[in-house]
């Protein structure tokens, strides 16, 4: 029996597991199994002909900023043209909004997710552009005025324009209450946006003439925190043909998705319109982010699919020990793991997509609660597993996996971003436990677990373990939030493994071809759920952190014995090629003083000589001898700072409070050892 292909699995999942034909028929717009197969067949052709053959070259070529213009790889131009001509962008977009025809096909979200998986496994960098546009369409369809919808939606739905999502700022990552970008009324009903956004995916490019930026910003006198954030839209090119006062100030150099331009966006009094109500911008953005989070979960699945395709092809050709390595039991085991995990994630994502469709098409409130519960699990579990599968894919290749030619390394580099953006996986776990579980006292989770248990007796043990973990979370969380939060990621992980088993059991019940794979998952992989969900947090503060001793590279001559933190002063004035006045004045201060945790991939804080508190410089700081290079992304400004810093004097141990504050921000919990 030959293995099923990605498209076959998707058609099977949509038709036989989540019964999309039945769901759409109930909603009054029936979509038959043949239609689904035909659409996915076309998507497969698009990815096979226009993305797969060029994706490695596109990765090598990368996105480039040349004289203020962002250039994308050459192969993206015909691919994007075909994307527009095929009408792909409008697949799940509305046909009409407020009586205005906007050109979408109104097909189900689950089908869009299946198409996205195929396109993303063809080239993840390329796929991010349509993904962001889809998010913008969703937000505008729900929150924009009819006039705004008429002006923008047809262009976005056709793909003639692209959309972006501008949330992140140097000091505002997971914590959007820190957003500082300003929006000032211009006296004519419009607004002027001033500020800087970082990490903006496809913030600028050469594939379309115009881009519509959705931006979070604060109105004058807005209340502090998340209640004072509004949503604005600013086109790159204004209706009268003038360039708006916004631009890409720099491109991040990244670990992966090299061909996706990740931009520092500078808004220098850009003309914009308010979208939705003042100070309710986060609501609108979250409406768009829920679908986007499912979309990012799909990226994890897609990377698993890409890893599998490369690994299976290599394992069939590579001969060792007198036979293709695919026939060696351990390699067969790795391939089976990638295949089973990828299929489990794929079907789980489709289940969430179907719940979204049930809610939208049939107004089913239960389905809405299910999407809410499944969204953080799909986002985090599928993306974590995408990274695992990419790593296993490299292992199957042996040494060839570690060199770039085989393409397996690119999969891991690309997959690694998905657990980070659209709300880190840690934040997803907190959302699952803190919001979704506590919101209804665990009722929906218990209902879901009952369904899982009824599907197959082999799931009983995992369900029992999940039930115990749910009880523990609900009980312990009320008394000790730290303990519950420290166990949230393990809880989400266990839920993912359990629900993945549920989906494969359903697949096996629907078609015996899937029984061996389901059997493998349930026997070999599902036990992870029980062992993970038995994990209970040791009190974070009782876990010692490595400190300077465990990581000698962290130690500098003046490292604080308390935390490994040290205080350094730049040797001389830093000359930083800032391109605008938006940059923080601190950057040019000769007294710039860094307090670094010394964490290799950790944090850096800058304080002015006589300062007003720590300023986050970024999430990575390369430490090589005494040369500390702060990468562009870290500075989060439109400059490329790089300088040499020398210790000025021996640093005094940090006061306990400051040390505790820094320790709290480390990714691992730690104990503060007082210097002896
Ligand atoms: C390639 C790329 C593309 C991106 N595209 C976009 C884009 O198009 N638009 C956009 O607006 N942004 C974009 N981002 C930004 C992305 O969404 C953020 O990086 C992400 O939200 C995390 O923010 P941060 O990097 O500041 O990390 P931080 O918020 O500083 O988090 C660092 C660590 O601390 C943890 N943490 C933070 N707060 C808490 C908490 N309260 N409790 C527990 N743990 C916590 C996090 O889980 C994480 O492990 C992109 C980023 C990258 C790298």
From TrEMBL:
What are the alphabetically sorted keywords of the record? FAD, Flavoprotein, Oxidoreductase
Query: Does the keyword section mention Membrane?
Result: no
Q: Which cofactor does it need?
A: FAD
Q: Where is the Acyl-CoA oxidase/dehydrogenase middle domain?
A: 165-266
UniProt superkingdom: Bacteria
Q: Which Pfam families match?
A: Acyl-CoA_dh_1, Acyl-CoA_dh_C, Acyl-CoA_dh_M, Acyl-CoA_dh_N
Q: Record's Gene3D superfamilies?
A: Acyl-CoA dehydrogenase/oxidase, N-terminal domain (1.10.540.10), Butyryl-CoA Dehydrogenase, subunit A, domain 2 (2.40.110.10), Butyryl-CoA Dehydrogenase, subunit A, domain 3 (1.20.140.10)
Q: Domain Acetyl-CoA dehydrogenase-like C-terminal spans what residues?
A: 451-535
Occurrences of domain Acyl-CoA dehydrogenase/oxidase C-terminal (ranges): 279-432
Membrane-spanning parts = none
Per UniProt, residues of the Acyl-CoA dehydrogenase/oxidase N-terminal domain are 35-160
Point out the coiled-coil segments of this chain. none
Which family does the similarity line name? Belongs to the acyl-CoA dehydrogenase family.
Name listed for the protein in its UniProt record: Acyl-CoA dehydrogenase
| Source species | Paracraurococcus ruber
């Amino acid at each position: 029996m030959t293995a099923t292909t990605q498209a076959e699995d998707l058609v099977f999942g949509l038709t036989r597991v989540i019964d999309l034909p039945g769901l759409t028929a109930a909603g009054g717009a029936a979509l038959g199994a043949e239609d689904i197969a035909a659409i996915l067949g076309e998507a497969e052709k698009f990815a096979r002909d226009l993305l797969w053959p060029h994706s490695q070259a596109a990765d090598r070529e990368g996105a480039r900023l040349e004289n203020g213009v962002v250039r994308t790889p050459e192969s993206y131009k015909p691919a994007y043209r075909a994307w527009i001509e095929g009408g792909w962008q409008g697949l799940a977009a509305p046909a009409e909004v407020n009586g205005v025809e906007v050109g979408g096909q109104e097909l189900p979200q689950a089908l869009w997710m299946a198409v996205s998986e195929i396109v993303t496994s063809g080239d993840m960098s390329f796929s991010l552009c349509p993904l962001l546009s889809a998010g913008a369409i969703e937000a505008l369809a729900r929150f924009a005025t009819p006039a705004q919808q008429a002006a923008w939606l047809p262009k976005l739905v056709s793909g003639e324009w692209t959309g972006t999502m501008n949330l992140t700022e140097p000091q505002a990552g997971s914590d959007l209450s820190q957003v500082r970008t300003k929006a000032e009324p211009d006296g004519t009903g419009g607004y002027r946006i001033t500020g800087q956004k970082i990490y903006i995916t496809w913030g600028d490019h050469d594939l379309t003439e115009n881009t519509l930026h959705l931006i979070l910003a604060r109105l004058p006198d807005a209340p502090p925190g998340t209640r004072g954030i509004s949503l604005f839209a600013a086109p790159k090119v204004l209706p009268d043909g003038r360039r708006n006062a916004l631009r890409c100030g720099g491109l991040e150099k990244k670990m992966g998705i090299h061909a996706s331009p990740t931009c520092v966006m500078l808004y220098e009094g850009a003309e914009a319109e308010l979208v939705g109500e003042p100070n309710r911008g986060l609501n609108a953005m979250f409406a768009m982010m829920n679908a986007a989070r499912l979309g990012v979960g799909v990226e994890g699945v897609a990377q698993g699919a890409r890893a599998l395709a490369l690994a299976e092809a290599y394992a069939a050709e590579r001969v060792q020990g007198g036979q293709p390595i695919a026939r060696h039991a351990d390699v067969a085991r790795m391939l089976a793991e990638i295949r089973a995990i990828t299929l489990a994630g794929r079907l789980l994502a489709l289940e969430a997509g179907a719940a979204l469709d049930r809610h939208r098409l049939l107004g089913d409130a239960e389905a809405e609660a299910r999407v809410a519960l499944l969204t953080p699990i799909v986002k985090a579990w599928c993306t974590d597993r995408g990274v695992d599968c990419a790593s296993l894919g490299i292992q199957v290749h042996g040494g060839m996996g570690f060199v770039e030619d085989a393409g397996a390394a690119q999969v891991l580099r690309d997959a690694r971003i998905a657990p980070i953006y659209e709300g880190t996986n840690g934040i997803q776990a907190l959302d699952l436990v803190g919001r979704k579980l506590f919101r209804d006292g665990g009722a929906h989770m218990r209902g879901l677990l009952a369904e899982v248990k009824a599907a197959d007796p082999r799931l009983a043990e995992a369900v029992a373990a999940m039930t115990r973990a749910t009880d523990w979370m609900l009980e312990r969380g009320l008394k000790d939030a730290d303990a519950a939060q420290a166990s949230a990621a393990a809880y989400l992980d266990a839920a993912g493994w359990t629900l993945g088993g549920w989906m494969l059991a359903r697949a096996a019940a629907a078609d015996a071809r899937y029984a061996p794979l389901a059997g493998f998952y349930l026997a070999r992989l599902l036990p992870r759920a029980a062992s993970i969900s038995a994990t209970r947090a040791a009190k974070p503060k009782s876990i010692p952190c490595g400190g300077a001793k465990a990581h000698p590279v962290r130690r500098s001559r003046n490292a604080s014995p308390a935390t490994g933190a040290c205080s350094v002063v730049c040797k001389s004035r830093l000359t930083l090629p800032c391109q605008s006045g938006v940059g923080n004045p601190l950057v040019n201060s000769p007294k710039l003083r860094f307090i670094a945790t010394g964490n290799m991939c950790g944090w850096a804080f800058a304080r002015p000589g006589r300062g007003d508190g720590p300023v986050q410089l970024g999430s990575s700081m390369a430490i090589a001898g005494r040369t500390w290079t702060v990468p562009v992304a870290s500075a989060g400004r439109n400059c490329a700072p790089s300088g040499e810093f020398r210790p000025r004097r021996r640093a005094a141990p940090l006061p306990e409070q400051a040390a505790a504050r820094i320790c709290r921000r480390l990714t691992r919990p730690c104990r503060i050892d007082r210097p002896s």
